Amino acid sequence: MIASIDVVEVALALCLTGTALVCLFDRHLLRACRFFVAFAIAMALAWWQLGAIWLASAELLLGAVLTGLCCFYALGHVGSSGSSVLAHDHFSEPWTRIAMRVVLALVWFVMVAVAIGYVLTDMQHSPAEHPLLLAGVVIAASAMASFALHRHLLRRLLAFNLLGSGVFMLLAGVAGTTPTAQVLISVGLLVAALGSMLGVLLIRQLLHLQGVNALDHDSGPKESAT
Amino acid sequence: MIWRFGLFDSTFTPLATTHWALLTVLCLPLLMGLLAALFPPKRAWPVLLASAPIVAAGLMLLFAFNDAGLLRWQWAVADIQLSLRLNGLSVLLLLTTQWIGVAAALYTPGYLRLSDPGPMARWLWPLMGTLISALSLMWLATDLLTLYVALELMGLAAVGMLLLSGKAAALKAGMRYLLLALVGSLTYLLGVALILGHWGRLDLQGLAEIIEPGPVAWFAAALVGAGLALKAALFPLHAWLSPVHENAWTPVSALHAGLVIKASLFMLVLLWSILLPDAFYAPRVIAWLGMLAIVWGGLLAWRTDSLKTLVASSTVAQLGYLMVIFPLLLGADVAPLPRALAWEGFWLQLMGHAFAKAAMFMAAGNLILATGESTLKGLAGTSRRLPLSLLVFGIASITLMGLPPSAGFTAKWLLFEAMIITQQWWAVAALLVGTLLTAAYIFRMFRYSFDESAPRQRYQPLAPGMDLIALTLALAAFALGLFAHYPLGLMHGGGV
Amino acid sequence: MMTLLLALSLLWPLCVAGCSAWHAYRTPSSRRDYFSLLWVSAAWPALLLAYGGEAQWTIDAWMLGGEWALNSLSRPWLAFTALLWSLAAVHARGYFAAEHKQAQAGDQDVQRRLQRLSLLWPMTLLGNVLLVVAQDIASFYLGFALMTFAAYALVVHTGTQEARLGARVYLILAVVGEGLILAGFLWAAGEADTLTLQGVREGILIAEQGAWMAALLCLGFGVKAGVIGLHVWLPLAHPVAPAPASAVLSGVMIKAGLLGWISVLPLGHDEVPGALAQFGHVMLIAGLAAAFAAALYGVFQRHPKAVLAYSSISQMGMMTALVAMGLVAPDVWPLLWPGLVLFAAHHALAKGSLFMGTSISEHLPRWPLPLVWALMALPGISLAGAIGAGMISKWGVKSPLYEMHHESLIKLLSWAAVGTAALVSVALWRQWQQREQGGSNPWQWGAWLAGIMAALVTPLWLPLPAGSIEMAPLKEWLGIIWPFPAGVVLAVLGWLLTRPFKGKSPPAGDLWWLYAFIANAALVPIRLIGHACGKIKAASVAAAQSMEKRFMVYLSRGLAGESWLRHHSSGLMMVLAAVLAALLMWEGQG
Amino acid sequence: MTAEWLPITALAIALLVTGIIFVLPEESHRLRTTINLLAAVTNIVLVTLMVRRVAAGYEDIFSFQVVGGVDFVLRTDALGVMFAGLSSLLWLCTTIYAIGYLEGSANRKRFFGFFSLCVASTIGIALADNLFTFLIFYEMLTLSTYPLVVHRGTEQALNAGRIYLRYTLTAGVVLLLGAVLLYSLTGDQSFSSEAGLGDYLNDNRGLLTLIFALLVGGFAVKAAMVPLHGWLPRAMVAPAPVSALLHAVAVVKAGAFGILRVVYDLYGIELSVELGVITALAVAASITIIYGSLRAIAQEELKPRLAFSTISQVSYVILGIGLFGPFGTIGALAHLLHQGLMKVTLFFCAGNYAEELGIHRIDEMDGAGKRMPLTSIAFTIGALGMIGLPPFAGFITKWYLGIGAIQAEMYWVVAVLVISSTLNAMYFLPIVHRLWFRLGPSHGKGSWPDEQRLGRFETHGWLLLPMVFTALVSLAAGLLAGLPFSPLDWATRVANGEYLL
């Protein structure tokens, strides 16, 4: 690591964080998906920047193209005739839930940050030297929290994807881009992509069967029965 | 603690034949699954034929282990060292996996024929194969990477299998499971990232040697623990479990409840005993949650109206038993004797539960299939018409209740001894309460089935062997309890 | 040979009962003979056995180990027992002739009653025989219980209201008595670690609490023997029982109690401890009290059989007193016991004849009335000691007492005999009042006459040890005879004096009514407590149920939390991770 | 010469029959009957063999290791063989009876299957040589009786089954706790070990007492000691053969037998006395005896009355244990057998009355003696035996108990015995009275509640035969108690072993 602040990395980190946050918290899902694609491209760039060409290409293929396509497919913009039911998140969460998730996000942020601080002892002194790592922490914590917060299935799927990216980023950040780490990340990417595909198929199927876009009260009567 | 997992160098290099056996064990299920997807079997005998080599390979590994003790295979691919090892525990879990897998596979043709499964049915076979392979890999893995791969493979296969029934409820439950499972693995990965970042290696044996208690180990343990707890449906993260089981096909439920969630638990114990060899509170938190799980799961099962929910909720409670043992397995302050007892009890309980739960799901599936009703009330009068299915259910539930002569009882006996020696009275109380609650919900179900006042209805006849397969599994749980000395001795064999 | 005879005498009644039962199911009712010759013969082997000589048997396989013997005591006892049973059986054949006809004519009720009687009569007999020959506790107790419970059928035979009452009183007291006997036997046998009556006797003698054991046993047997306070079943059961049944009840069955005493009490032993002697005194007083009180109460009874029952109580009182002498003055016992046995035997036959006589007076044969009454009076006079065997038995008792200088007791006994005489005369008078003509059966009066004869010549046939009984010297005759005329005179005087008062006669069974009242009064609070307990239980059950219901409501509400858990799984996972991390950090740092 | 196959074969036969019955189709009645009877007879032969070997001084042991430090052991000792003999004898009787009783009814396969399982458990209980093995069969018994209790499937039966399980499973849990505590303290203790637990007395007095309380408390539920008796009267809804077996051997006796094992073979009498638990046991038993009798008097139906009588009578066994001394022990052991014989007779009779005449209430029994003489005679024998009148079996045990009480200087026990005998008379004699002395439908007064003509005799022959047999045996057990190999003789043999006389 170089001592001075790498401008490119900072820019990338800022770009990643910004796109991720928009993607996570925009209720307009088409826009969010676009931002997700942008995030994935930024992610690929970041991998490139870190010197992991293989990962960059994988991210580009799996993350940006495949997952992006999946998202648009879920929204009905690719393939079958679209329906706008999913395009906007209408759920309004009670403020307690939001507050709890914010607190949890903060806690996780602190936790992950502290943990990384222990792993990379030099970071404690100059946190700004690892902008990508920081971005990873922020993304992971906020994605985790928004995964816990949202009910809209597509948003949760997006949150999961962002969480994955954040975790990979952290992994690369703390462990470097050793072969082992690369293999781990590739497996993770593959799984994320597969999961996303499966998830999107499910979303479509659910929408088709029942017109639902969240997992509310699916087995409510079972529980309330005495 | 670590030697119990077989994380040390072996005395003998494995023979060439064991390589082939290993290959068979790991790959043949997958291949056979794919084959079955192309030519879906309509009867049980092709399945039997296909599974014979797999089981034979498993037994071969058992004999090899018996002869040579710990077996270890190593390869280097690129810069990455890959290694697999087979110790007593692995053998046991491997055999358990194979037998339950084979039983589920044998059960499947009859089930599919009777239950009108739709076009997705053929995909069950490759997924099942993948699942078995992934599980087998997991028991043998010695590094975090392989574990991760096996975990993900298993998770995705499991989700896929659960979705196959195609009902909306199943899809919903599957969607939830998918999301949570993926997030759980990511959390696990986060923990692995910390480990990799700090120590720079992923092989368990090496990690076990160099890890010392410190903040990184703790954070990693917390993250890994939380992620795996979610996947293992440990209380209070269990709530996704029962809808999943309720809507899945019977053999799928059997495999899932018997094996899949156990795999996550296995990893949890394995990693924690490396990361937290002498923590005090973390295992206790799990134990306290386990006590709650026992009560909560028991109450859920007690009050439910649906047979499958009953079985699924009982899984939650049974996992509670396993959680309660954590303070005895981990932590520095446990004397060798209670630790050994707890260790044996833990795995015996796990295996016994696997067999019994699989049998129970099959029996429940048979009942539901035959009566066409999935509620408890729909069971009225079944004792007259479906005595064998009920008997299987009963035998399986004896294991769950922990009554003799089942594996559940023997395990409970060992656990009690361990807990009494270490004076963990709360845990003792939890186990006792669990027994009673289990009895409460089991016999609530039997009460319905013995009701003779219900109107007679038509029952669909079951395919031959469906009951017998379940019975075999249930009796296996009995045999495991009565002759526990041998398998438990196997667990010692690799180590001392 | 003796063994064969013993087996026969025990098995024969059983066979008879079996035959009776067999006939009940196999012979049509019109041809059924309830009182066949076979039935009548039930007691004959036992009678033969009594004259077969002394013998002993030990049978290990029998219950706790059988010890049976015919010795100087049990031989005469068996003799008079079996004789009276035989006579009563013969009498019964005549007595039930009318009912028999009814039964053959198809009256089901009568059939049932006769069936029952003919079945249980031999069983009662069997018990009686067994208890006489038994020398071990179990057999004795078996015989006693068998006799007691089988006799229930004899008492309840007629099935009337009074009969049922009498039978119930009989049964209740019998059960109480059995309980007391069992307790006494257990105690004594347990202390002495024995299984024989001999052992019990010795055990009581040396045991610290011997007097209490003796008391328990005596009270237990006293129920049968009609000891005062426990005698109440006699006047209630006797009048209602058929005459032959009354005869055996009063004649031999109450003697079983006496035999019980003799068997278990260490009578005539050299070193009777103080407490036991004390107990002897109590028993003596109780016996004398019974002798007098029964006479006083009995003379006011209306029913002749009730009067006779009181007379039995009175007589048994005397015998009680004599038995007690075995404890109070042990040295007199060796001389006294043959007299006592003779007394008992004579009383058995005489009382049996008197009871049989009551059936004669109810079905008078076409004989001159004075003759009949004279015959009827004979056993009574003898009982009072004025003639025949009565005199000899009196003397047999008196002379040892004289020898050992117990004159005061002799006086008291003589006065008690006055009571006996009065009772007998009242009984005869009542019979005269309630006499009825008609149809005495030869079997009936034959047995009666035989009984009278046997009673009068008791010493001649009773197999007592040689020389133990002798005729009273002439100078003593007056001393023996005087109570009879005195009694008769007293009775007449009494009748004349009380005639102006037209009061009701006191109820038979005297103390029973008090007992019943007390028991009922005691039951009231018990019932109340029972009801209260039941209410408390019902209330607690109701409370528990409502609690359960409420709990279930809470529970199902609580279990709805499952869906909350489901929706917050991921959040909870985050919490869990954070908590685990925090805990580990805290623990690691701390 | 060893014959370790003997105990396991006896057990295996019963288990095998269970399996066969479950496999056979419901309709093959004849085959099932044959197998059942064959197995029952074989078992009697085997037990006879055991008796002979034990009498000759051999003990056969079969064992294997379950887990480290815990073995599965079957052993033929005198006490076990005694109980096994009772089980196999009454198995035959109740099987015959059940065949007649259930003729033409549904679910017979299930019934006989669990019935055999029940008996297998009982044999296992009898021959178990350590607490672990004992517990295995004890719980097996609990579970296998449940289907029998709820056999009729009515609401009432199902509720009874639930209550039965509530009691017995809770007891099982308590028992398990006690057993594990004991194992963790002392390791695997064979019932045959001479040592007893005396070595642990000094350091662990409190713990030993606690374990004793747990174990005995657990067993007391099955033995239906007050206040843990609530399940028994309710379980009366079961069919008559089940009630008979439940009351005579299987369940209540298993509890009593467990207490016997704990006191005599596990703790040893000296230690039990030393701990002071023996007297407590005697007091509890006495309370049960009196309470059971009092409640029995208040019952107006036949089977509940018999049930409360059982509660009272089984505690005689416990009382006998509570009397420190050979006589008490002999009484307890002999009563184990005697009560079984008598109670089974009574329940057979109750079943016959219910089947043939539809009689359930006591006031319906008037004059039944005429209609069903053999049944009524058997009932009378059983009832008089229960009261403790000679020459029936009940007298023998009462006698020994009384002697034992005196020798232990517990005089109040004699009072308890006498009072209970009186109370027994109070609730049994009225029934006997009604049978024989009251006028009833057979005398043309009214009619029976539900009269059937089940057979050539007074009722079905299969129902009659076992009843007459057990009645005769219980008569003979009292009348010829002095014979070798009579219950009393065998009990004496066992007691001599326990007290090393």
Automatic annotation (TrEMBL), chain A:
Superkingdom in the source lineage: Bacteria
Keyword flag Membrane: yes
Keyword vocabulary terms for this entry: Membrane, Transmembrane, Transmembrane helix
Residue intervals passing through the bilayer: 6-25, 32-54, 60-78, 98-120, 132-150, 157-177, 183-203
Name of the protein in its database record: Uncharacterized protein
Species: Halomonas casei
UniProtKB/TrEMBL annotation, chain B:
Topology relative to the membrane: Multi-pass membrane protein
Localization (cell): Cell membrane; Membrane
Superkingdom of source: Bacteria
Alphabetical list of Pfam families matching this protein: Proton_antipo_M
Database matches in InterPro entries: CPA3_Na-H_Antiporter_D (IPR050586), ND/Mrp_TM (IPR001750)
Keywords: Cell membrane, Membrane, Transmembrane, Transmembrane helix
Transmembrane segments: 20-39, 46-66, 86-108, 120-141, 147-165, 177-196, 216-241, 253-275, 281-302, 309-330, 350-369, 390-411, 423-443, 464-486
NADH:quinone oxidoreductase/Mrp antiporter transmembrane domain boundaries: 141-438
Coiled coil feature spans: none
Family note: Belongs to the CPA3 antiporters (TC 2.A.63) subunit D family.
Protein's recorded name: NADH-ubiquinone oxidoreductase
From TrEMBL, chain C:
Coiled coil (UniProt feature): none
The name this protein goes by in its record: NADH:quinone oxidoreductase/Mrp antiporter transmembrane domain-containing protein
Annotated transmembrane regions: 77-96, 117-134, 140-157, 169-190, 210-234, 246-267, 279-300, 307-329, 335-357, 369-392, 412-430, 442-462, 477-498, 510-530, 568-586
Cellular location(s): Cell membrane; Membrane
Keywords of this entry: Cell membrane, Membrane, Oxidoreductase, Transmembrane, Transmembrane helix
NADH:quinone oxidoreductase/Mrp antiporter transmembrane domain boundaries: 134-359
Domain of life from the UniProt record: Bacteria
Membrane topology: Multi-pass membrane protein
Record bears the keyword Transport: no
Annotated organism of origin: Halomonas casei
Keyword Metal-binding: no
Pfam families xrefs: Proton_antipo_M
From TrEMBL, chain D:
Highest rank taxon of the organism: Bacteria
Domain NADH:quinone oxidoreductase/Mrp antiporter transmembrane: 128-423
Membrane topology (UniProt): Multi-pass membrane protein
Keyword terms: Cell membrane, Membrane, Oxidoreductase, Transmembrane, Transmembrane helix
Annotated compartments: Cell membrane; Membrane
Transmembrane stretches, start-end: 6-25, 37-58, 78-99, 111-128, 163-186, 206-232, 244-263, 275-294, 374-397, 409-429, 462-483
Record's keyword annotation contains Membrane: yes
Family annotation (PANTHER family): HYDROGENASE-4 COMPONENT F (PTHR42682), NADH-UBIQUINONE_PLASTOQUINONE (PTHR42682:SF4)
Protein name: Monovalent cation/H+ antiporter subunit D family protein
